[in-house]
Design brief:
By secondary structure, the protein is an all-alpha fold. It has one domain. It is built from seven helices and no strands. The chain has helices spanning 7-13, 16-23, 27-53, 62-90, 92-95, 99-120, 135-157. The chain is elongated and about 55 Å long. The structure holds protoporphyrin IX containing FE. Protoporphyrin IX containing FE binds next to helix 3, helix 4, helix 6 and helix 7.
């Protein structure tokens, strides 16, 4: 017998929010566009900073670059997650069982763990780095690059699975 989705997802899908997202022809595409803008700003700024930490663009000092890109990545994250939740509410009981969606959330969660480790660890000494990041920061930057780009790939595959 097919496994029933947890009722919390069915209640979200049948809630006023889920119904509004499904029944308003313009709302879903607008929210999806905002979702895309959110993760483009998020992943774009993270990829640029991670590549700098990995050694690209050595003429650009790391700390001022981070001061520009980190707030941007936070804003992009908040937009991507809030709009993503709205998209999810429209069809929660099905999307929650989508392996690409599950993989995306796992990649995002793991990427957030690398953010916490980075900021609790090597980034505390960023002012002392000069123009070359320490090995620990480069390893975390490589992991972050793979995880966030992986989340984008998984996100795109949601529609196909
Ligand atoms: C924060 C990092 C996130 C990234 C990088 C991301 C990335 C993506 C990508 C690349 C797509 C495909 C867009 C398209 O091709 O049209 C997508 C779709 C989607 N995302 Fe996200 N997403 C993120 C967060 C979330 C969250 C937190 C949720 C829900 C809780 C979510 C729910 C969805 C849903 C439901 C779709 C499918 C939309 C559709 O096909 O109609 N996303 N996401």
């Amino acid at each position: 017998m097919e496994q029933q989705p947890a009722s919390v997802f069915l209640s979200l899908q049948e809630s006023a929010l889920g119904l509004t997202m499904r029944n308003s022809p313009a709302l879903y595409p607008v929210v999806e566009i905002l979702h895309i803008i959110g993760f483009v700003v998020l992943v774009g700024s993270i990829v640029a900073l991670d590549l700098r930490i990995l050694g690209l663009g050595r003429a650009i000092p790391i700390q001022p670059m981070a001061q520009l890109l980190l707030p941007l990545s936070r804003a992009g994250f908040l937009l991507a997650v809030s709009m993503g939740f709205l998209l999810f509410s429209a069809d929660a009981s099905h999307v929650v069982r989508n392996p690409a969606f599950q993989a995306k959330l796992l990649l995002i969660a793991t990427a957030l763990v690398t953010v916490v480790i980075a900021h609790a660890g090597p980034w505390r000494q960023v002012a002392l780095w000069g123009n070359k990041a320490p090995g620990s920061a480069r390893a975390l930057a490589l992991a972050s690059l793979v995880l966030w780009l992986g989340a984008v790939c998984a996100g795109r595959l949601i529609a196909y699975l």
